[in-house]
Amino acid sequence: MVRKADSLCEFSPSPLYHQFGLFHKSGLPPAIEFETAADASEEPFSGPSRMVYNRRHDKTPTSWRCHMRPLFSQAVLVVFGGVLLAAIPSSAQAASPCEPITLDRLPLLPRDVTLHQFSSHNKRGLNGDAGWFLYRDDRGDAVVFDAAGPGCVRSFWQTDLSEDQVLKFYFDGETEPRHTISCLDLYRGKHPLFPAPLASFEKLGYWGDNPNAGNCFVPIPFAKSLKITMQGRVKFYHFLYERYPHGTPVTTFTGKEDRTILLRAFAEQGEDLLPPSDAEVTRSEFPAIEPGKSVELFHTGKAGTIARVVIEGDASEEFLRRAELEMRWDESPYPDVVAPVGMFFGPAVRPEAVRAMPVKVELLPENRMRLTSCFRMPFWRSARIALVNRSRGSAGPLGPIRAEIHVTPPRFDENEAGYFRTLYREGRTEMGRDWLLYRAAGTGRLLGVVQTMDGAHYCEGDEHFAIDGAGSPQINGTGSEDYYLACFWPNRNFNFPFAGCVGDVKLRPGAACYYRFHLEATVPFYGEIDARIQHGGRSDIVSEYRSLAFAYLRRKPALRETDLLDVANPTSERMHDYRATRSTLTEETAASHEGSDTETVVRDRGRRHEGGEITFTVAIEPGNAGMRLRRRLDQNVGRQSAEVYVDGEYAGTWYHADHNPHLRWFDSDHDVPATLTRGKSELKVRLVPREGDGHGPWTDFRYQAFVFADTTDRGLVVKTGVGRE
After folding, report:
1. Within its chain, how far is the Cα of 155 from the centroid?
2. Segments forming the whole domain that contains residue 284
3. Which of 7, 334, 501, 680 is the most buried (most CB within 10 A)?
4. Predicted TM-score (pTM) above 0.70
5. What angle do CA 543, 546, 548 make, to 5 degrees?
6. Rounded to an integer, what distance in angstroms lies between the CA atom of residue 466 and that of residue 592?
7. How many domains does the chain have?
8. pLDDT digits over 324-374, tens only?
């Protein structure tokens, strides 16, 4: 039997599809049809069972056929993001670093990209994150973003917006703004460069007279530099952006970039689309899971990639809290994933519908719910997924439970991708200590967080993400509800592809639940990551928190320190042949870093450079895939910029635009491409600080040299007795 669509594989195109011309006028993509097996009728549920079947892709390029059996009554096979979920061959990388990453490419280990943020965070480390900016330009406008390229703005957010606020965009050293746009027009989708739904302006909070948040997910690439200024009063904002090593080919923003993938992420958000064509599906049904017992949903002894996990259970708080997923890859001695199903799929507090890009929750008749995840989970030797009933005491069984596990053939070589992992934490907050969301050593990507908060007024807390051992957080936010792209707690229920508040906290008091999936820009790390969030303005609120972080991880770091130059130390300067013109020694500086540990004071001496040039040598390892230079600088001086040369070759501009006389230490990184470092054991670095035009003196207190291991090198993966890294 062949038909255009049926209840097993239903298309429900969003109106946004028609608005942006992403769907054929018939409501279906052209030349798509589904073939249902003749024996697809469902038998009554009668106990534990498992069925495996294959879904094959017709080789004819103009048609698709799905050969399938139904999962269970009213089953819907769900995929998020359309093209975002298209299958890719192993080792495939984006043609341009500025292209949106797809769910299929997420497991790939990061290369040649770092993530950073400019925000209005309070530079004293206190609450009150409105009105802070980098500096004022010659026009008197507040500079809110200023970075040397190549790079790409991935998303930005504002709240407390007003009619007088205007954004001006200066690309690649321009002295006149290329684009001058009213903030409200931009977020309301009234400017053709920033169309809805990629730009939005919505009432997401309750507090105050203007609880509206503006969000924009239009990528803004820049080849050499980008400066964004704000005319009018400055309130709350943050910009997330990526930086790439010098020489990375990037075409500066034109407004004509292909946004199809992102538009489909919004248009198809939560819609029922074509499942992976080559998936093998394991179906399981269990009448009940007794307290303390577990059932196996999937087990294999061969390589593959989990493409989708679907679970149906009772729409109850008990099921969301007490049923836990456990996943193990490649015979791991411990689970790689341990997560309550409510945290894993989003509705961590109570049954609520969720429609995000990687997860979806549907409320069904008869007090049932269906939970779907589309995260890709690669494995190379074995995989096991179980569901555990963590109930205790007199609690009863959970059930009935029905599940589908979709597995595709291997997509990645073992050396090029990370394992899908989670970190679940729950408990009472600690005074003076930020809540830990995720911490790991190795190489990978932080994908996002689901978090619940119950207790006092917690939503003033800023996120602090310190990456690769930096003393300063590269991600330094303005408030917990701001991190989740809302504003002015308490928050209304909303679902974006990348962030949301699950349930309306004011209408249904109790614990708040949020999700933030960094899928417009994952958080890459090469050595380690420490991601935390405050509870209250200074981590001074007593609350009960729960959080689940999602990541891809290989436990062996790809970044290794090879040398350290202690500036102003005569022995270290002599060993590194450190020389500087127009340089003066500083007095001992006693200061703190921004972020989670503002009370620790570090004392150091260094140098201050009024132009001239600086040269020194650093030792590295020849078998490298590039180098990172890290410099401790004094933010009491703003706009520090220098041209970088490595063995006489230009290696980009090293620029730190911020100025902070309160928390003065900052660890600034500059990545050097492998074309200038591979095969060498020593490098001569020359820095030419920029002077004038508002730039401050260059300050340096120490330099660290790191080398990158090639993540596609087999040497990155270390086999152990259980077949893991």
Report:
1. 11
2. 2-88+276-408
3. 501
4. yes
5. 150
6. 15
7. 3
8. 999 999 999 999 999 999 999 999 999 999 999 999 999 999 999 999 999
